Amino acid sequence: MTVVGVIVAAGQGSRFGGETPKQYLALAGKPVLRHAVEALQATRSLAAIRVVIDPAQRAAYEAAVGDLGLLEPVAGGSSRQESVKRGLESVIPLAPAHVLIHDGARPFADPALIGRVLAALDRHDGAVPTVPVSDALKRVEGEQVTAAVARAGLHRAQTPQGFRFRAILAAHRALDPAAGVEDDAEVARQAGLAVAAVAGAEENLKITTAGDLARAERLLGAAGEVRTGTGFDVHRFGPGRALKLGGIEIPFERGLVGHSDADVALHALVDALLGAIAAGDIGHHFPPSDPRWRGADSGQFVLHAAKLVAARGARVAHVDLTIICEAPKVAPHRAAMAARIAALLGIALDRVSVKATTTEGLGFTGRREGIAAQAVATIMVPR
Ligand code: MG
């Protein structure tokens, strides 16, 4: 019995207000779509998965799930139903018996729920996971409650919805595109197919608003475990070098000496990030003996550390950097450094702190022999 999955992820997420469509937003360090795909793959009962995408988002798609062994994605249509239809047409050569149609913005379908959907297909043309409505229902017009709606017998429909493949394909082909149906269970029902309701799950939420994303983070326990790492670095001043500090170039009569661009602040930051995931230190990842890093922009070390953090499913909550020197004056450059670091880490500006201090003329920094930097990184790791 061949089962294939069709995941619709062609939406542009306009209700979210941001540039990134919701299926590509990070949820506990992983794109929402990746959660959705992995949820279907976890059942081990699917022969193949096809994702329907907006071709303009191909790069985001590849970054999110390009390594998961999926079928080549197909382009969606102007409506969800058109996108599903294209997905169904595209898997005809696989001759599936059953198909699971799933929302790319629904990250938490659990194997038990998917099992209930598939089991119901023994006796029905289609099966949809539903959750009974428990709140009182009101019709609201403007700010006014104008009517009560009886909730008896009302359920909310979720995905994945399962169907006998030939039956749902025929139903989609027969559907009037102007019918304005909201899901595949309704496409099936309008074609006269028998659709069963199986138990859905409250946790199987769809990410539609920023509030949904926050709720999903809480469900994952993404706010559950905090880890911190610290970093410290020193570089000496030398002649003939530009001064790179905190990811930007600062006009100064001397630069720092080192194998790379010697950005002491970013080096401390990299060690803090690596420390938070217990992944060694900067010298381990970028040995000074390696000619590849001669004169290298230390921004790429930060990007690498951020990638390792993301690979653990973690996200950077906050970084705090202290630069220790008598000169140059850091204050005029603090905002530019923070902006550069926030961009490198892909986090909001209010999650980046850059501070500076002197050592009151004492020690090597007091003698203006070099610059020291220390950093603390705080990351959130899902349980
Ligand atoms: Mg260094």
Walk me through this protein's architecture:
This protein has 383 residues and is of the alpha/beta class. The protein has two domains: 3-222, Spore Coat Polysaccharide Biosynthesis Protein SpsA, Chain A, CATH 3.90.550.10; 224-382, 2-C-methyl-D-erythritol 2,4-cyclodiphosphate synthase (60s Ribosomal Protein L30, Chain: A). The chain is 29% helix and 27% strand. The protein has twelve helices and 19 strands. The strands form five sheets. Strands 1, 4, 5, 6, 7, 10, 11 and 12 form an eight-stranded mixed beta sheet that branches. Helix 3 packs across helix 5, helix 5 packs across helix 6 (184-190) and helix 8 (264-276) runs parallel beside helix 10. The longest helix is centred in the C-terminal third of the chain and has 13 residues, at 264-276. It is elongated. Magnesium ion (MG) is lined by residues 233, 235, 258, 264, 267.
Name a few traits of the molecule.
12 helices, 19 strands, 2 domains, binds magnesium ion, Spore Coat Polysaccharide Biosynthesis Protein SpsA, Chain A, 383 residues, 60s Ribosomal Protein L30, Chain: A, 8-stranded mixed sheet, alpha/beta, 5-stranded mixed sheet
- For the residues shown, what is the average pLDDT? 93
Helix content bin? 25-40%
Q: How many discrete structural domains?
A: 2
Shape: elongated
In short:
This protein is of the alpha/beta class.
Blueprint (SSEs and pairs):
Elements: E1 3-9, E2 26-27, E3 30-31, H1 32-41, E4 48-53, H2 58-65, E5 74-75, H3 80-90, E6 98-103, H4 111-120, E7 126-132, E8 137-141, E9 144-149, E10 155-157, E11 161-164, H5 165-174, H6 184-190, E12 195-199, H7 210-219, E13 225-238, E14 243-245, E15 248-250, E16 255-256, H8 264-276, H9 282-285, H10 299-311, E17 315-324, H11 334-345, E18 352-357, H12 363-366, E19 370-381
Parallel strand pairs: 1-4, 1-6, 4-5, 7-12, 17-18
Antiparallel strand pairs: 2-3, 6-11, 7-10, 7-11, 8-9, 13-16, 13-19, 14-15, 17-19
Bound molecules: magnesium ion.
Magnesium ion binds next to strand 13 and helix 8.
